[in-house]
Write a structure and sequence with these properties.
heterodimer; A: about 260 residues; mainly alpha; MetI-like fold; 2 domains; 10 helices; about 80% helix; globular; B: about 270 residues; alpha/beta; Rossmann fold; three-stranded antiparallel β-sheet; 9 helices; about 40% helix
């Protein structure tokens, strides 16, 4: 047990050290050069703002996090459904991939005001949709790859056992796609937080991270604005870590396979 | 279908396989192949790359269609044989599923046949016993060595107890020592089960050690050029590998191969000039 912890510490200390050096340098720069907070607030100021109003930070992050989570769920379901169609029908695959790539290239800045007009701006719906659209592409691409990129020998084996396409999907393609699903999730989950946050810049309810970062900055409360940024980073990180935890728990065979 | 053919594990007559027929990139993978494998017989297909030995195995397994000719497997068409699971197949790659335990990998063909889980488990454990991997039933495939993984694949190919085994270079990726152990094990399994076996290999000693007859094939176009009888009897062990009769058979197969391999290499050279 202690050996395991020593092992973990070995991997943990370099990033911690780098973070401490970075923050220390930042603090020193601000203090020694007498930099004004509206140019660059000191880490201690940001820390004060963050911890001083931790309850509000949590509420704000929770609001945006909920939007991100809903968008992540809907985007993933849509990506999964389309990937299942794409692996079955090559026509769908050829049609959907460029379409999805096009959709992924549409800037949030253009998309959000349109969706705000289409749906009630006071509701969460347009933001969830923006997030879902952003999530859709990495999920579609990764799941499709996982369903299609199967060892040729394993496919021949399935055929030699007289397996029908539906069985091949259930027994071979779907389990094969699970690690790819998590690769997509690791990209999509933090991305969902960013999308939900940016979508808040274009009006609507004001209790989210994006709204409050913009609002604080407009009121020259830069320390406060940065505190919300910290809350956003933590939210994205939590999303990512949840995905990693679920991956470890559900797919013990990845990571160690092949290389072991 | 006559009763004569039903006694054969495999019966091919005038089988052709032509890829991209009628196009500039046409390749004749199999030309006019006649081959009969008796029930209980061990046949090896040997020859250089591109001689069509794997293609012939794939036609038998109904993984690809013959362009022309007649093929029967255990008295029925290859398609019916595949539907009825009259053969089991093993490949050069073990092709195990990482997300299943060793036991559940062996159970896979039974699962597809709709066996209930209790019977499946009992049968899988029995087979793992046979390939001496009972202790590893609940391990994951990637925890096993290459030779052990291949033994799991063989156990899996035997799961539905098919009368015929088709093996496509199953020991090709293993080191020499493991390979010889696996050959002994395969001979033992054959003795125990009485299966008919069609075995594709690159290795002359391997073909001789295992087979009743070695089918020598040659490329461009892929065809059978010789069939060498191996008079080593049924009881073979490590001593067989040192026996004069073994070396004589190795020489016979090598000469059969050399005659044709040399000839085709000659032709290829002329073709290049």
């Amino acid at each position: 047990m202690s050996e395991q912890w020593a092992d973990r510490l070995k991997y943990l200390w370099p990033p911690v050290l780098i973070a401490l050096v970075f923050l220390g340098g930042w603090q020193a720069l601000v203090v020694l050069r007498n930099i004004e907070p509206f140019v660059l607030p000191a880490p201690t100021l940001i820390g004060q703002e963050f911890l001083g109003d931790i309850g509000l930070m949590w509420q704000t992050a929770y609001y945006t996090g909920t939007t991100a989570f809903l968008g992540l769920v809907f985007g993933t379901i849509a990506g999964l459904a389309m990937a299942l169609l794409a692996q079955r029908f090559i026509v769908v695959n050829n049609l959907v991939t460029p379409l999805a790539a096009g959709l992924a290239a549409v800037p949030i800045i253009a998309l959000t005001p349109i969706l705000n007009n289409m749906f009630s701006i006071t509701s969460r719906t347009p933001r969830v949709l923006v997030t879902a659209i952003i999530v859709f592409f990495p999920m579609l691409v990764n799941i499709t790859r996982g369903l299609i990129q199967v060892q040729p020998t394993q496919l021949e084996l399935m055929r030699s056992m007289n397996a029908q396409p539906r069985t091949v999907l259930r027994v071979l393609r779907a389990p094969n796609a699970i690690p790819f699903f998590f690769t997509g999730m690791k990209v999509a989950a933090p991305l969902a937080v960013i999308a939900a946050l940016v979508a808040e810049y274009f009006g609507g309810p004001q209790q989210g991270l994006g709204s409050r970062i913009a609002g604080s900055a407009a009121n020259t409360a830069y320390g406060r604005a940065w505190a919300y940024v910290v809350a956003a980073i933590i939210t994205g990180l939590i999303f990512y870590l949840i995905v990693v935890a679920v991956e470890r728990w559900t797919t013990p065979w990845t990571g160690r396979s092949r290389s072991a | 279908m006559t009763t004569a053919t039903t006694q054969h594990a495999v019966n091919a007559s005038g089988v052709w396989k032509i890829f991209n027929e009628g196009q500039p990139n046409e390749v004749t993978a199999l030309q006019d192949v006649d081959l009969t494998v008796d029930t209980g017989e061990f046949i090896s297909l040997i020859g250089p790359s591109g001689c069509g030995k794997s293609t012939l195995l794939r036609v038998i397994a109904d993984l690809t269609d013959a362009t022309r000719g007649q093929m029967s497997v255990a008295g029925v068409t290859p398609h019916e044989a595949r539907e009825k699971q009259l053969y089991g197949m093993a490949f050069q790659q073990a092709a195990l599923f990482d997300w299943r335990t060793v036991r559940r990998n062996v159970e896979l063909p039974l699962e597809l046949q709709g066996w209930d889980s209790g019977k499946r488990k009992a049968r899988a454990l029995e087979l793992l016993e046979m390939v001496q991997l009972a202790d590893f039933a609940e391990h994951r495939p990637w925890e096993l060595s290459g030779g052990m993984q291949q033994r799991v694949a063989i156990a899996r190919s035997l799961a539905v107890d098919p009368p015929l085994l088709l093996m496509d270079e199953p020991f090709g990726a293993l080191d020499e020592m493991t390979r010889e152990r696996m050959q002994n094990e395969l001979l033992r399994i054959r003795q125990d089960t009485g299966k008919s076996i069609v075995f594709v290999t690159h290795s002359i000693p391997e073909a001789v050690y295992l087979s009743d007859r070695v089918v020598v094939m040659s490329p461009r176009p892929g065809r059978i050029t010789d069939i060498v009888d191996i008079p080593l009897g049924m009881d073979r062990d490590e001593d067989t590998r040192e026996a004069d009769a073994f070396y004589e058979s190795v020489t016979a197969v090598r000469e059969a191969l050399r005659g044709h391999v040399g000839g085709s290499a000659q032709r290829a050279k002329i073709g290049e000039v």
